[in-house]
Design a protein that fits this description.
- The chain is of the alpha/beta class.
- It folds into 2 domains: about 1-35 and about 180-410, no CATH class; about 50-160, D-Maltodextrin-Binding Protein, domain 2 (3-Layer(aba) Sandwich).
- It is about 70% helix and about 5% strand.
- It is built from 17 helices and 6 strands.
- It has helices at about 1-15, 20-45, 60-70, 85-100, 130-150, 155-160, 180-215, 220-225, 230-265, 275-305, 310-320, 320-325, 330-335, 340-345, 350-360, 365-395, 405-410, and strands spanning about 50-55, 80, 105-110, 115-120, 170, 175-180.
- Strands 2-1-3-4 form a 4-stranded mixed sheet, with helices on both faces.
- Strand 3 (about 105-110) and strand 4 form a beta hairpin.
- It starts with a helix and ends with a helix.
Length: about 425
């Protein structure tokens, strides 16, 4: 135990005092704030001011479409109406788009008594926001004109077509109705998942790189004279894991200190993130379990590799469960109680991230947390058992490529 604690203390102090720890502790949250700011600004300016033309053989319909576009437009786009039009006018509009004097035009062919046909032309093929706005405005104008043509007064038409806002409420475990927001739930779960996956992978890889460096420098030949391989591996896992928890604690304290003054103005409105004591308890618990699982896996992998370049070739395979977790993010957030969501939260390799995503939307039953953590503990024990045997033999193995039969022999060694 004494040697284990000494190794853990050495790993902890060596990384805490390192320049990389200080730089990442400061730069990572700063870069996240910058990224969030860029995302918010990009979202607000995704549909910036444009110069559009509504062209139709029906001047009334074109005017109605323009009115709908201008009424709901916050980007102050310039929308012109050209009606009536001919085929020559369409060629002229195409030339204006090509010369960039306008951003695009909506061509509406409205035969009398028939459903209009519309085409939107622009230089960009990915402007789906403007395309959706055009479609909504056209459909609204067509319905409005049909209702008016059936004899309904225009004031009654506007009342019939008035949008209805939907407030979302969530029924909690006690049966109480509490206000909720789908976007906030998504981003809360996503923020916890990405922070968990990032720190778990970073510190798991730190364990692997440390093993490779000490293996290539043969410092272990000296260390093994005073400590057992199992103590060295366990001390390394504990020390590096403590570094990860320290860094996360610094980020949490800093976020609590400056979050209200910096993040709150950026996240005001519909995006209001709130983290309760449940997340505060579960996040570090799943960080420790996820870190131990991946760090044990990386430790055994590093012991079987000769160089850091060889280790990096296998890293994508070890990261596959994390990629799988993020591939399921939309389904898990939308339906956290589905069979796939529950299965993914019980599978040890994906459990930490999937559970954080589920917690962001709805707190799962307690037995699922107990089952998930129990399975993870058993999995950590199994991976650590295999990795410790690979570590014991592979750490002193030089110049010999570790094949599958060779690795099996290493595991069988007592």
């Amino acid at each position: 135990m004494r040697n284990l604690l000494l190794v853990a203390r050495r790993e902890y102090l060596e990384q805490i005092r390192g320049r990389a720890f200080r730089i990442t502790t400061v730069l990572v949250p700063v870069l996240f704030l910058v990224l969030i700011g860029i995302m918010i600004l990009a979202g607000r300016s995704a549909s910036g001011p444009k110069h559009l033309v509504i062209a139709s053989n029906d001047a009334g319909l074109a005017g109605e479409v323009r009115q709908q576009l201008v009424a709901g437009d916050q980007s102050k786009s310039q929308v012109d109406v050209q009606a009536p039009v001919t085929s020559e006018d369409r060629k002229a509009l195409v030339n204006r788009v090509r010369s960039k004097s306008i951003d695009g035009f909506l061509w509406i062919d409205a035969p009398a008594g028939q459903t209009p046909k519309a085409t939107y032309e622009s230089q960009s093929s990915g402007d789906f926001i403007t395309n959706a706005r055009m479609g909504a405005a056209l459909n609204h104008a067509v319905v409005r004109r049909r209702l008016a043509a059936s004899g309904i007064r225009m004031a009654d038409v506007d009342a019939l077509l008035k949008n209805v806002e939907i407030d979302t409420l969530q029924v909690n475990k006690k049966g109480d109705e509490v206000k909720s927001n789908a976007m906030s739930s998504f981003w809360k779960g996503y923020a916890m998942a990405i922070l968990l996956s990032m720190t778990t992978m970073i510190y798991g890889m730190n364990v692997a790189r440390s093993i490779i460096q000490e293996k290539t420098s043969r410092i272990f030949e000296v260390m093994l004279a005073t400590a057992k391989p199992s103590d060295l591996l366990a001390g390394k896992l504990i020390g590096v894991g403590a570094v990860g928890l320290t860094q996360i604690a610094i980020w949490v304290v800093a976020a609590g200190a400056i979050g209200t003054s910096i993040a709150a103005p950026m996240l005001k409105g519909q995006l209001n993130l709130h983290f309760g004591w449940v997340e505060g308890v579960l996040f570090p618990a799943y960080f420790v379990l996820g870190y131990l699982l991946y760090a044990s896996l990386f430790a055994g992998l590093a012991a079987s590799c000769e160089t850091e370049q060889e280790l990096q070739m296998y890293t994508p395979l070890a990261a596959l469960p994390i990629w799988l977790s993020f591939a399921l993010i939309v389904m898990v957030v939308n339906n956290p109680d589905s069979a796939i969501s529950i299965a993914a939260s019980l599978f040890p390799a994906t459990a930490p991230i999937i559970m954080m995503l589920r917690v962001g939307s709805q707190i799962p039953p307690w037995w699922q947390f107990a089952a998930s953590m129990s399975i993870m503990v058993l999995s950590i024990w199994g991976v650590l058992w295999v990795s410790s045997r690979l570590y014991r033999v592979g750490i002193l193995m030089y110049g010999k490529r570790a094949t599958i039969p060779e690795l099996v022999r290493w595991i069988r060694y007592s």
